[in-house]
């Protein structure tokens, strides 16, 4: 996925991505790096699929300190990734339907990609979201409509 020409929008920003060694987490970490942020990945183990320019910290992260820390969450919808694809196949097989039916119900007409989630997180980390804190950003292609 292209980064929409927003290079260095995150220069000087620091981000901690938990479980960022593969799948959605790696997509988020890569997008933040592409935007110029310094990224630390915290996970139980390293992976060759983790972004090379991220610093890896082993272990489980239980707290992050900072007087002006903004804390937000992102809830992804159906995202194609090495971790979720086998589970989606298993659920579809157990229910007796074609996994493609899951995608047909998404208003935007496609499954998400790890880079889609990375774009949402990059926005939350950027100066454009400087007054955004305490929110859960749902990134699901419109699957769970809300206003």
Give a structural overview.
This protein has a domain at 14-76 and 113-139: 3-Layer(aba) Sandwich (Rossmann fold), CATH 3.40.50.720. The chain starts with 13 loop residues before the first strand and ends in an 8-residue tail after the last strand. Helix 1 (23-34) packs across helix 4. The chain has helices at residues 23-34, 85-95, 100-104, 114-125, and strands at 14-18, 38-43, 55-58, 73-76, 136-139. It is 27% helix and 16% strand. With 147 residues, it is of the alpha/beta class. It has 4 helices and 5 strands. It has a 3-stranded parallel β-sheet with strand order 1-2-3, with helices on one face. A two-stranded parallel ribbon has the order 4-5.
| Average pLDDT for all residues | 85
**What is the CATH top level name of the domain at 14-76 and 113-139?**
Alpha Beta
Rounded radius of gyration (Å)? 16 Å
**What class would the helix/strand composition place it in?**
alpha/beta
| Major β-sheet strand ordering | 1-2-3
Total beta strand runs: 5
Binned, the helix content reads 25-40%
User: What percentage of the residues does DSSP assign to strands (E)?
Assistant: 15-25%
CATH hierarchy: architecture of the domain at 14-76 and 113-139:
3-Layer(aba) Sandwich
Spatial gap, N to C terminus? 27 Å
- CATH topology (level 3) name of the domain at 14-76 and 113-139: Rossmann fold
Fourth-level CATH superfamily of the domain at 14-76 and 113-139 = NAD(P)-binding Rossmann-like Domain
Individual helix count: 4
Describe the largest sheet.
Answer: 3 strands, parallel
Shape: globular
Low-confidence stretches: 61-65
Topology order in helix (H) and strand (E) letters: EHEEEHHHE
């Amino acid at each position: 996925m292209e980064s929409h020409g927003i290079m260095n929008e995150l220069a000087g920003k620091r981000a901690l991505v938990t479980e960022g060694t593969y799948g959605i987490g790696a997509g988020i970490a890569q997008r933040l790096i592409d935007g110029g942020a310094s990224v630390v990945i915290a996970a139980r183990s390293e992976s060759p699929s983790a972004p090379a320019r991220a610093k890896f910290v082993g272990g489980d992260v239980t707290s992050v300190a900072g007087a002006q820390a903004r804390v937000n969450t992102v809830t992804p919808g159906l995202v194609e990734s090495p971790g979720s694809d086998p589970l989606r196949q298993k659920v579809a097989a157990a229910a007796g339907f074609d996994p493609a039916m899951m995608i047909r119900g998404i208003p935007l007409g496609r499954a998400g990609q790890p880079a889609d989630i990375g774009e949402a997180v990059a926005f939350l980390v950027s100066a454009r979201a400087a007054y955004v804190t305490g929110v859960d950003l749902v990134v699901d292609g419109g699957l769970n409509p809300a206003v």
